[in-house]
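Hi L.,

As promised, LPS-assembly protein LptD:
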Amino acid sequence: MLQTPLCPSAGQARSEDLRQALNPNRTPRRRFPLTPLALAVLGAVHEGSWAQQDEAVGLKPTPALREDIPAQVRGQQPSFVFGDRITGRPDLDTTIEGDAEMRRGDTVIRAQRLEYWQPDDLAKARGNVRINRAGNVIEGPYLELQVDAFEGFFTQPNYRFLRNEAYGQASRVDFIDENRMVVRDATYTTCQREDYPGWMPAWILRAGGIRLDQEEEVGVATDAVLSFYNVPILPIPRLSFPLSDKRKSGLLPPVIGIDSLNGIEYRQPYYWNIAPNRDATLYPSLMSKRGVDLGAEFRYLESTYRGEVQANYMPGDRLRDMDRWGYHLRHDGALPGGPLGTLGLSLNLNRVSDDNYWRDFSRTSASLTQRLLASDGLLQSNVGNWYFLARTLSWQTLQDVTSPITPPYDMLPQLLARHTRQDLPLGLESSVELNSTRFDSVRELTGQPNAQRSFMLGALQRPWQAPGWFLIPRVQLHSTYYSFDAPLTNGRLQADRTLPIYSVDSGLVFERPTSFLGRNFLQTLEPRAFYVYTPFREQSLLPNYDSGFNDFNFATIFTENSFGGHDRIADNNLLTVGATTRLVDPDTGAEAAKFAIAQRLRFKDQRVTLPGGQPVSERLSDLLFGASINWDPRWTFDGTVQYNPKTRRSERVTVGGRYNPSPYRVVSAAYRLQRELSEQIDVGWQWPLNDLWGDRGLELGPGRGQGGGRWYSVGRLNFSLRDKRVVDSVLGLEYDACCWIGRVVVERLQSNINTSNKRIMFQLEFIGFSRLGSNALGTLRQNIPRYQLLRDPNLPAPSRFTNYD
């Protein structure tokens, strides 16, 4: 069996040191005599402890265990010294020889000889000097340091940082203060040493100088060269790199990709950390087949508003022989509204230069890769029981001659007011909605006149509810008025419609204890009946601006109207019956399984249809079956089947399942059928290939990988059974080598019936330093269900006590 190399971890490697520090009596310590100053301090501490023994016993937080020590507290902390021989003059100087040690707060200095000048707070150490500052360790032959100010220098040091386990060596380290240092003739890597002859780190940064800022959590290297397996791959005159995931200004790693549509693409992002609440990213790209694409993104976050702006401009696209551009703006905030209270303002603006933009720049922005681009702005407010909204919505429709789209109507504007009350006499509840919308589009494309539509929808209901049952009768009144810009086919410029809607929703809940397969459960049985009656009103001459069929599912089958929107109100006289049963863990309340069934019983034909539709005469609707099973936390299953009892076949099927036994092992699959339209299988996975030869790896937890030397297969395939071809596919390999991760991903996305876009992405991730290559990681996170990062930068930083001396 192959052995998996263990990526050394500061927390694991030093757990024994932590136990020793927390329990110093575990083994005898060697010669640690205390200075008179230390004895006096310890005496004061013990006196205070005895004085508090009469108080109530309980756990109390202690400042000694906090991660950061404030500057005002640091100067007041006592010093402790240990050694084989201690000499000195009180309040002037102290000399410790032989296993010398000095402790103050989170700073520990050890050496063969240690001299300390108390008036200057200056320590000089010689011989095997080691300093541990909040878990960061530096070792070398000679140290001079002002302890509190942390100013001084270290000669010929070796250093290791706790946060990202990076280490290296240098000719000299100059300490500027407690957070900043300059390392000269330095090396830097996160590859942990392995015990075999000739070992070399897989990657290493060599620099003439490195300035490290632990407060800003950034490093700046000058005259640097990055080597990978002893091969220089990136000469760097000046480079800044993160010591954590904290934001900072500077050049980001370049992105290089190969695309069948754009050719070889090189993108060089620059990140500008304008302020803690504002930043910008510039990402100019060079595409070998197209030219230069200038892209930028700006983000802002304030106490009362936030947003982002993204824009791209390509002058002279060589493939299309035209300038190309696109922009996306998102803003959410609040404005003072006077008598209307605080106004919520939301903007979502999207526009591109031409109909082919979504196909040619499919990865520019998720909001710009669709064929219907919305530009939406709204103001909204809540005042007591009232809700007010003013909205404008316009669409840009990107047409494809092989698959044209009828443009939706713009709403310029929509005005809405809604009032709700749940505290009326006799337990009544009410709601009233007033809505007026202006619909605009090109009549030659829609075949309908533009119009102003206004409606009032009032509802009154009286719920009766108890733990085992509920009954909710409800009555609604829907009154609509239209004013058209041009006459209808009957010559009218106005139209109106008023309809009452009556409904009763009811249900029961039964419970019983039971057991299945050796497990105890609380099983429920929840029958439900929903009746609705809406009289017929002729609506065939009315235009249709926003109505469409509601999807037939468990969320819509228990509703009054078969249509969405307000231009069509179905005439109904039907009863929907259904039942649900659940298996619930009585101890945790977790739902192990749920099964549901529902069907509509129609007592008369539905005559109201959408334009071009046919009346519904079937007395029994299709049956809906639903199931969700979470019997084992590793397995999940859910599915919905729409079954036609007349034809005895399913009309729509959606079945999905997922197996996730441990981190980095997940397989998901889904089958989707829509009769006569589509039939697809979707499979996604992330799985260690080392499992094939018996190497199960290490369970280090999410975001930490499974140890070094491991291969992972990742992918997603969407296959059309109807067309017998792969629609979209993403296939990739990841290799985890502890201090670096390599990724190769091949992506194929269908842009229309006959064409697809293909690209190959390579990415090297140097742990604790940077990523080079294409954005393969972004593609995997977007496409692989439940994909997990091999290294998650958002994991909590290790405590300084994990490397405690």
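Residues 10-46+73-250 form one domain.

Thanks again for sending the construct details.

K.
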